[in-house]
Amino acid sequence: MEKNTSVETENRGRAVALLPIGIFLVMFIGSGIITRDFYAMPTIVAFLIALAVAFFQNPSLNFNEKIKVCAKGIGDDNVIIMCLIFLAAGGFSGAVTAAGGATSAVYLGLSLIPPKFAVVGVFLIGCFISISMGTSVGTIVALSPIAVGISQATGFSLPLCLGAVVSGAMFGDNLSMISDTTIAAVRTQGCQMSDKFKMNFKIVLPAAIAAAVIFFITTMHGSTQVELGEYNILQVIPYLIVLVGAIIGFNVFVVLIVGTVAAVAAGLVTGTMAWGGIFTAIGSGVTSMYDITVISITVAAIGALVKEYGGIDFILHFIHKNTKSKKGAQIGIAGLVAGVDLATANNTIAIVMTGQIAKEISSEYDIDPRRTASLLDIFASVVQGIIPYGAQLLSAAAAASITAYEIIPFLYYPFFMAVSALVFIFLVPQKDKK
What we know:
Elements: H1 19-35, H2 43-56, H3 63-74, H4 77-98, H5 101-111, H6 118-133, H7 136-154, H8 158-175, H9 180-189, H10 193-219, H11 233-248, H12 252-270, H13 278-287, H14 290-309, H15 311-322, H16 326-344, H17 347-365, H18 369-386, H19 391-400, H20 404-407, H21 412-427
């Protein structure tokens, strides 16, 4: 028998405890449908309304007792560390962007790739940029104009070229050690970033190879001359420091601080950053993470109340009743985070919202936390990378004045990533947890 029989499974919980989450989804999706803009309603507003609903539930607890429940949930080690990492990652991102690191990394990559391989090259560069920057949208914004130029020079389909950009961006969004999705997945499951990276990389590597091969085959007979901008290798070094340091397993805070210092040094040496702009650049990066930090705190409060009221027990009982194996439990986790991402159009929020439930399921079925963290991140990224109302496709489409739907058929990597993860679930047995 695969599941952990030592865990109490008779508690059926209360479905009504999930009302705050339901309210959030109805408001967020309803607002998107009515306004035809899923970003019209600020996410934090919808969550605050959901939190208010949670406070009105369960009169057996008074207001002060509910505040204590929220405070305990917010004060969880994983929540606090996750928020601090968000801020540290933002500081690094702000510094390295101001230093010209993103631009240099793009043009350095293009200079190393033969022109006729420009489309597959853009995919590979996107993989590197996104895994270094930790942001898929930032990667798409940086590379989309180049993809447009490649399309014009070669005659290759514009949606195809943009599909390569989005595919590469989602590679790093899922794997980067400074990506908010990775931070959320790791902290909610209580595993190490380097361990999650290694397991996650093994799962998605076949998908990345398959996508690169498809992009190569479909464009191998084309040729182009890509106009290169200036780049400086010094501006790329901070990315390499963070990437290598995180893979080796150094403390994430130390890696991000060293990376930030290296980015500032590179900016000063190359003249792209003035002394007076150092703190402004770092501060801008930190403030860019305020939204996800505040949302994470609010979601932690909602989650604590939902758990106190029996909502998580209800979900666990439902999955327990309909799942007979570890494989089924993993499919349940994948479906859960994918469904929430479909509703919220934000993979980080989807992971934060489902992280605690996924952890409970993993404990129930004795699933390796590294495995759970990888599946959460992968399936949230799969959905985020293909939904036409997500920030990723909207950004790519806007850069070329086309519709997001035109790009979807060419999103080879997200689709292959889903297939690769499903193969992993069904065919790769779990080894003993470390």
